[in-house]
Amino acid sequence: MTENVVTQIARCSAISSLVLAVVIGLLAAGVPTQLGLYRWIAHLTPATRGLRGLSPAFMLPDEYRYSFEDVARTDLTGQTAVVTGANGGVGYWVSLHLARQGASVVMACRTLHKCDTAAARIRSNFSDADITTLTIDTSKQRVVRSFAVECDRVLGARPLDMLFLNAGIQTAGYDDDGGLPVSEDGIEMVFATNHVGHQLLYTLLEPALQAAPMARVVLTTSAAQFDVPEYGVPTDLETLNKPGKELKPYPYGQSKLAQVLFAQELTRRLPAVSNIYVNLAHPGAVDTGLYDKMNLGSGPVRWLVQQLQDGFFWDAEDAAVGLLYLGLATDALKSGNVRGQYFHPQATRVDPHDKFATDSAFGQAVWEFTDSLIVK
Fold first, then answer.
1. Residue 295 lies in a domain
2. Which residues is 279 bridged to in the sheet?
């Protein structure tokens, strides 16, 4: 190959890379957003509803139905809240705004040092914030039980007004044999962390919730619940823990669909006039600083990622608004009898998975399977 040909190939490659960078930059940033392209796609058919609220670019103006101005008008004095996964991301911002509005907040985190650091940040802004920090690892049932005992001690005779089941992981990787890692209780790790541990925690704290005039339970879920295997959620341990190569796209999605089914089945099990309102919020694609921890340098890749962060992702504080709505907007919850519902940003109700979320028998089967995984 002559030097001239090599030069031409290199030049074409550079031009192609530049064109690709420009196209991606335009798509990620302002032009299609300003033209409403993403909003049109997200509202094109029922099949694209998972995109609604994924980022601000996919939002219609009338879908901003709740705001921090609404939060600021809410007095939470005398109310108590528990937030799992509270040291970062949306959990941190939920905790901050609850404390700012006068609630007593139990921040529950896997690492106490990180929890204490997050609590100190909140107190630096609001010196009178009433915050207690406790440790929890929702993948470990013994730790969940210990947390519940400590939480009851902190609550004393007070009821629990709000429970934000927010902690979670997206992946646990794969073990040395290429399979899915399991928890110390023998349960696939993502399912154990995102779903089983929270179902157990709810059960343990239910008496404190029942004692509240109006208790709100909010689960942080995801549009990943639309991306699940053909059977939706496993209802036997062998299928749940099968080799990772057969389930690579699905551990996270099926754990999030399980949360949806949990909220719906719990709503069916509670009395129709129960004081406990259980709902789910998908915060959208959130900029949690993950990419800042990656060594992307300062070149085109870093620039492209920055365009995605700036043009597509929700700021973590803004992403918390949907969760706060389901915890604070008590009049709206009561008047609409909002129970077992699934919401996208910002406080927009969206129908969950067509096949599985409409099958009450399947929801009951998943509940009973989950219950069988909980150590008695």
1. no
2. 218
